[in-house]
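The protein record reproduced below.
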Amino acid sequence: MDSKRLIEESQKYLFKTYNRFPVVFVKGRGVKVWDSEGKEYIDFLGGVAVNVLGHCHPKVVVAIQKQAQRLIHVSNFYHIEQQVKLAKLLVKNSFADKVFFCNSGTEANEAAIKLARKYSKLYFGNDRYEIISAFNSFHGRTFGSLTATGQEKIQKGFEPLLPGFKYVPFNDIKALKSAVNSKTCAIFLEPIQGEGGVQVPEDDYLVKVRELCDENKLLLILDEVQTGMGRTGKLFAYEHYNIKPDIMTLAKGLGGGVPIGAILASEEVASAFEPGNHASTFGGNPLVCASAIATLDVILEDGYLLNYCQRVGAYFYQQLLKLKEKHPFIVKDVRGKGLILGIELTKDGMPYVQACLEKGFLINCTAGNVLRFTPPLIIKEDEIDKLIEELKKLMRENL
């Protein structure tokens, strides 16, 4: 089917929940993708922080092929070898003692909300159920995660939202302390707000949040759906701050491209869930777990990729700073850590996304005026240079 006809049928048969660009991708290798017309692109979006190893990494492809020939899916009524192996890998390399698998980030966050409330009611009674999250956060689009998301534009049209949530400004420990009361059971934050415009907190913010939780016997939930799996140069972003959450959620990069989510927790907190409290039909099936194991193995191998992410991320950050120096009236700020980076513009960012697409670069605009970059962790400096040169040209043209 030619691309024009496919786009027409897409518009005819699919819900209009996305503003899609008129491009059909048919092949991907490493950091590059090709459309149906044969045009090549360098991917600085990575499927929105999903393709941490790039497109069609050989070890991931082989793992999926081998598993698909053996066993694709069975019910969670039975023990699943690949699921146990993946859970063990995650536990051995994190703060956690237990893992629950689901299909996506929003499902992981939904499970975290349920677990926090169940734990708090078991140990502190029925009146402790409120969860504090941050303005401009993004935790998903199911009703619990939608309500936890502190953005009116995401929530609009779906009221009434669920009770028991309140919001405070991100990176404001005083506001957070003021919001805590006798009904609070948990604080729910992203270590870096991705959809909120790549907002990075002060170095001591999460440390103070952890202290606040300890003082008030609250659970700290970290949404690492976007920042986990090496994205920041550490396997998990919380490692940068020498703290441990009580609950952490993962998805996006966990599967290397296939849909899988996870909730990780300490033994004490995880024990609040009993058989029948939560479930997922497809969660942690053999196929997706095989892919995730291969992905995690590559990330952890000799620590090379994590160190590389820190180094190339620092290079990318410096090049963006130079861009800001050359064009201070267009670039307002540069933010990020590792390979989740963003530049805040003084104007609408979408024309830059469109122009970069036409020139063979996939980037993203979030929060209206923030160009976000979440490329595969294998991106090279010369590929970064090509994007920077294109952005320079566009800014010289005062796009």
The two ends are 35 Å apart (CA to CA). The chain has two domains: 3-56+303-396, 59-302. The mean pLDDT is 97. Residues 169 and 290 are 39 Å apart (CA to CA).
